[in-house]
Write a structure and sequence with these properties.
two-stranded parallel sheet; 14 helices; about 350 residues; Double Clp-N motif; about 5% strand; single chain; mainly alpha; repeat
């Protein structure tokens, strides 16, 4: 049987594994013996820039009620988590275990991910692929869980509508643009199939191996040292304010026309971009940045594998047109986790080079 670390790396993308890691932390802090879909949903909703949060906002017809309704949804999940039984004693193996409902959700996500890849690949390719569950598929499967759907209904949200928004966003857009008014617009992409070749593994191994019982050395995906963030970081407003202050100083610097800011930790970087978006929406930024828009631009790893060079260039051209249309107001382009920009060779040596 494969080790837990190896199996997780082959079954989940970094984003999906990170979501489970933070769900594990949430369950452990609350003293819960099991990680449930409620923990994962609450974790996915906690970040301002999260895909689930954006899909929830988009599902509401009245924009003025967005912040309050999202806050209500967070409170409803908090109440639902409070109702779960706590374990006063030490947990088995020192970590919460997967609930049956969460295992079922992960199996659904893996099945849907594999089906989508098989449908997109050319008929001459082998039908059995090793696929990594993307964050989008994980969210969709979590929304299918009855306990999560019930909490969504209590807060006035429809799981079906939110799922449709996620599917539309994943299939037809590679970037969103956020303005100070909270508006969002997207640009379509035209993925087409290219040859891929992946190692075949037995997907059942993942469900037979409890990777959450591994140590940091055994499971670098969930306990990566370079991505390890102090649990007090996000609650330490001084640290966040100081970082945002430095970022604003760099953006306002006169030494260069275009500035690149690179973070060394995805969760912290997402927290910073979320805080920056909030300040732009509230107008709590220097005058020079009040009209600036944030554009989120990135390709899903699976989509990128099935895109031609012309498709990528078309989306980059569309991005340039949007930036040019903003004129002197300027734009901040958020590229997310930069792993998607790394050259990847697939199949017979051909692949997208960025």
């Amino acid at each position: 049987m494969r080790s837990g670390a190896c199996t997780v790396q082959q079954t989940l993308t970094a984003e999906a594994a990170s979501a489970l890691k933070h769900s594990l932390s949430l369950a452990r802090r609350r003293g819960h013996a099991q990680i449930t879909p409620l923990h994962v949903a609450a974790t996915l909703l906690s970040t301002r820039t999260s895909l689930l949060r954006r899909a929830c906002l988009k599902s509401q017809p009245h924009q003025t009620s967005h912040p309050l309704q999202c806050r209500a949804l967070e409170l409803c999940f908090n109440v639902a988590l409070n109702r779960l039984p706590t374990n006063p004693g030490p947990l088995l193996h020192g970590q919460p275990s997967f609930s049956n409902a969460l295992i079922a959700a992960l199996k659904r996500a893996q099945a849907h991910q594999r089906r989508g890849c098989i449908e997109q690949q050319p008929p001459q390719q082998p039908p059995l692929l090793t696929v990594k569950v993307e964050l989008e598929q994980l969210i969709l499967s979590i929304l299918d869980d009855p306990s999560v759907s019930r909490v969504m209904r209590e807060a006035g949200f429809s799981s079906t509508s939110v799922k449709n928004n996620i599917e539309d966003s994943s299939a037809s857009s590679v970037f969103q643009c956020y303005s100070t008014s909270g508006g969002v617009f997207s640009s379509p992409c035209s993925p087409s199939a290219t040859e891929t070749q992946r190692e075949v593994i037995n997907p059942a191994t993942f469900w037979q191996t409890h990777f959450l019982t591994c140590t940091a050395e055994q499971n670098p995906v969930l306990f990566s040292p370079q991505n390890k963030v102090s649990s007090n970081y996000f609650t330490d407003s001084c640290s966040v304010k100081e970082d945002i202050k430095l970022i604003l100083e760099v953006l306002l610097g006169k030494k260069g026309k275009n500035v690149v800011v690179v973070g060394d930790c995805v969760p912290v970087t997402e927290g910073h971009i979320g805080e920056l978006m909030g300040r732009l929406e509230r107008g709590e930024v220097p005058t020079e940045l009040k009209q600036t828009q944030i554009i989120e631009f990135h390709f899903a790893p699976v989509s990128l594998r099935f895109m031609k060079k012309e498709d990528v260039e078309m989306n980059l051209s569309e991005l340039k047109r949007k930036v040019d249309s903003l004129g002197e107001s300027g734009a901040i382009i958020y590229a997310g986790d930069l792993k998607w920009t790394v050259e990847e060779t697939v199949g017979n040596g051909r692949g997208i080079r960025l």
